[in-house]
Design goal:
The complex is a heterodimer. Chain A contains five helices and no strands. The chains are: A mainly alpha, B mainly alpha.
Chain lengths: 158, 181
């Protein structure tokens, strides 16, 4: 195509011709038969979509992260309940995780999930977190401090 | 009177027929778009021995998501966008492998062996560099350069603005030109 500089265009045409020859080896009839078979045999997962902007199925990785975030919400509630039932004075109630996680990157969220999955019902007093608020009230720095404290405490109890 | 024109059923009609339970319509969609999809994936470095699997996965995902296909983009553009996502997921598994396998059957230009060697090398190098482009740059570049898709259509298929599609294409070309030469 003439939008490409001459050298790049020539190399691309060469590469595309090679790709076309490889594509010819893919038999549409065989693909169709296998696709139809898979649609019948494999359990149908509900494909989530961004309905307006994207219109194509979400990557499974995002679905996994979303599901994990839900687990954190539920797990946070359960953990808070366990801490309260334990009746420890030193225990700071762990609030339910909600919208405060929005500001975290995917990597940060995954770190939170890893830590949260390993949390034991012990005090996190050393983090200096107010027991009155929710995660929404915490800055990113405070949240990091909580996580570090959880990890520290966990390390001490092992 | 000439021979009666064969009515070509549109992709939209085939989709509607498939959703109504007609498997033949799905088969026809696969027949129509397999070559383009395979070529689209091959030029981005899908290994030879897994190319058909990636094509299959893309169609399976597309058919399962058909109810959400709103016709903003053409079916083929939408399918290629799904193919690009499937390839991206597979690419994670291939990281420790050589992604681009150099083909022994690049065109024979015996009249100009030096030129052939150079052209073959550049094409192979280009394939490698296309594989290293950021996902959107790669998608836009191949949709435009290989499939000849208009920027507006690319934008709909990839869920970006038309201006953004142009910028991605520009950056891809610039980067490839620098790396390949």
């Amino acid at each position: 195509m003439n939008e490409l500089p001459e050298d790049l265009g020539r190399a691309f045409r060469e590469l595309d011709a090679w790709a076309a020859r490889r594509a010819e080896r893919v038999d549409p009839e065989r693909v169709a038969a296998r696709v139809l078979e898979r649609l019948k045999v494999e359990p149908a997962r509900r494909e989530l979509t961004f309905p307006i902007r994207f219109g194509f199925p979400l990557a499974p990785r995002w679905m996994a992260v979303a599901a994990a975030a839900l687990l954190v919400v539920v797990g946070g509630g359960v953990t808070a309940r366990i801490l309260h039932l334990g009746g420890r004075d030193a225990a700071v109630p762990v609030p339910v995780v909600a919208a405060g996680l929005d500001s975290l990157s995917q990597q940060q969220l995954e770190r939170v999930l890893r830590v949260a999955g390993e949390v034991k019902p012990v005090a996190v007093q050393s983090a200096g977190v107010s027991s009155a608020g929710t995660w929404d009230d915490l800055s990113e720095q405070q949240l990091r401090a909580v996580l570090q404290a959880v990890q520290q405490v966990q390390g001490e109890t092992l | 009177m000439g021979a009666p024109a064969t009515a070509v059923v549109s992709d939209g009609d085939l989709i509607a027929q498939y959703l109504a339970g007609d498997e033949q319509a799905a088969t026809e969609l696969v027949r129509r778009h397999t070559a383009a999809l395979a070529r689209f994936l091959a030029v981005q470095g899908a290994p030879d021995d897994e190319l058909e699997d990636v094509v299959q996965d893309s169609f399976v995902k597309a058919f399962r998501g058909l109810r959400s296909f709103r016709g903003g983009a053409r079916f083929r553009t939408w399918l290629l966008a799904i193919g690009a996502n499937v390839l991206k997921d597979r690419r994670r598994l291939w990281r420790k492998r050589v992604v681009v396998e150099l083909s022994p059957d690049l065109p024979d230009r015996s009249a100009d062996p030096a030129g052939e060697a150079e052209a073959g090398w550049t094409a192979a190098r280009l394939a490698e560099e296309i594989g290293k482009l950021p996902r959107l740059q790669r998608g836009v570049f191949v949709l435009r350069a290989q499939q000849g898709v208009e920027y507006g259509e690319i934008a709909k298929g990839l869920g970006i603005s038309e201006g953004s599609a142009r910028v991605h294409f520009h950056h891809a070309v610039k980067r490839l030109k620098e790396r390949v030469q």
